[in-house]
Design brief:
The structure is a single chain. The protein is mainly α. It has two domains: 73 residues; 68 residues, Winged helix-like DNA-binding domain superfamily/Winged helix DNA-binding domain (Arc Repressor Mutant, subunit A, Orthogonal Bundle), CATH 1.10.10.10. It contains seven helices and three strands. It has a three-stranded antiparallel β-sheet. The chain is globular and about 60 Å long.
């Protein structure tokens, strides 16, 4: 019974941390004047900032989300002018995503927001504890 209670506590804490981190991210996005963006856009923007162009499937793999979820998020980024979608000249079934100039301009504010989130997440734990926590969470994730 104790292991079940510990699992419930772990899940409750993970859920609360996720909620708090999303609240922080949304507050910081608004403070930076980045209206219309949500925390879920961050991973996509980062993936595209690190790569000149990617397919939708490649982005989905990098951000570890379903392709349909990524498609919805990317469509919003395209509508806001942050991302462009271009068709492959040889295979018309393939589309590439890349950042527009407006999208590239997000890099500095998003890095600032990410830094604040990372500082908040790690302020009460040591570097060793952070590494151990990451290791344990990866083990839990691998069990799914």
């Amino acid at each position: 019974m104790k292991k079940v209670e510990e699992s419930a506590t772990i899940l409750a804490l993970l859920s609360r941390i996720r909620e708090k981190s999303n609240t922080l991210l949304q507050r910081e996005l608004t403070a930076q004047g980045l209206r219309g963006l949500v925390p879920s856009h961050g991973g996509i923007l980062y993936a595209l900032a690190m790569n000149e162009r990617l397919t939708m499937s490649e982005v989905a793999t990098i951000v570890q989300k379903k392709r349909s979820t990524v498609t919805t998020l990317v469509d919003k980024l395209i509508a806001q002018g942050y991302v462009r979608k271009t068709q492959d000249s040889k295979d018309h079934r393939v589309f590439y995503l890349s950042l527009t100039r407006k999208g590239r301009a997000l890099q500095a504010p998003i890095e600032k927001i990410s830094q604040k989130l990372n500082e908040t997440l790690s302020k009460n734990i040591s570097e060793g504890e952070s590494k151990q926590l990451a290791k344990l969470l990866k083990k839990i994730d691998a069990g799914w």
